[in-house]
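To illustrate the input format used throughout this study, we show a single complete record. The first block contains the structure-token representation of the backbone; no residue identities are included at this stage. The design step must infer an amino acid for every position from geometry alone.
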């Protein structure tokens, strides 16, 4: 507990000196791709990321249409989805995989499976790859929307000010919620972006630290 308190003190000193000023930039791009079963689909950002920031937060807002081929393309499912992920910086020249997912779904009795990878290449362009798309009948997926990236030197939830999220932050956050520590700055600790500090913020950090979530910072928008 002494080490955690020391970390909190360092955090408050650092933010007082800096005046809560943190370097960051934002990017937003249109996303549009279509892929059929048996084929691959790819999207690449029109400009590269800046590789030198401490953290990169990614938000995607997509409208997805799933169609089945039966002489003509027939819509069998349609909806909106928002996804959040993050990765640390600096990004190395070799690039980095941000997320890898194997997705399986049953759409009105039709089994669909695909692999989706979000990654940054060696020139720092952001990629979304759809590969190994299989279905029990010919299917087509069309997705349109936006991708947003927050490039920042702020690591949200980093209450001990060591530029990382780990068990020390989980412990300190638990003590804050119990009233045993001074409440940290809302902009740093509000992990679900609802304007309050509560147990859901702690759960988000916990899930990220133990590897059960791809990000601890959600529902943000710029």
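Output of the design step:
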């Amino acid at each position: 507990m002494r080490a955690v308190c020391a970390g909190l003190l360092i955090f408050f000193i650092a933010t007082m000196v800096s005046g809560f000023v943190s370097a960051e930039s934002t990017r937003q791009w249109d996303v549009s791709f279509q892929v059929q079963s048996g084929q691959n689909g790819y999207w690449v950002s029109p400009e590269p990321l800046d590789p030198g920031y401490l953290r990169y937060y990614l938000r995607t807002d997509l409208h997805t249409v799933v169609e089945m081929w039966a002489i003509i393309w027939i819509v069998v499912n349609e909806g909106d989805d928002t996804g959040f992920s993050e990765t640390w910086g600096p990004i190395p020249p070799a690039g980095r995989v941000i997320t890898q997912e194997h997705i399986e779904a049953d759409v009105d009795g039709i089994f669909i499976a695909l692999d989706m990878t979000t990654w940054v290449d060696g020139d720092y362009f952001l990629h979304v790859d759809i590969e190994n798309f299989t279905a029990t009948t010919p299917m087509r997926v069309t997705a349109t929307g936006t991708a947003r990236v927050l490039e920042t030197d702020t690591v949200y939830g980093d209450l001990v000010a060591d530029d990382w999220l780990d068990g020390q932050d989980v412990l300190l956050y638990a003590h804050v919620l119990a009233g045993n520590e001074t409440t940290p700055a809302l902009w740093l600790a509000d992990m679900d972006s609802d304007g309050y500090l509560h147990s859901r913020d702690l759960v988000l950090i916990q899930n990220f630290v133990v590897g059960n979530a791809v990000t601890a910072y959600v529902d943000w928008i710029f």
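Structural context for interpreting the output: The CA atoms of residues 59 and 84 lie 5 Å apart. Residues 24-152 form one domain.
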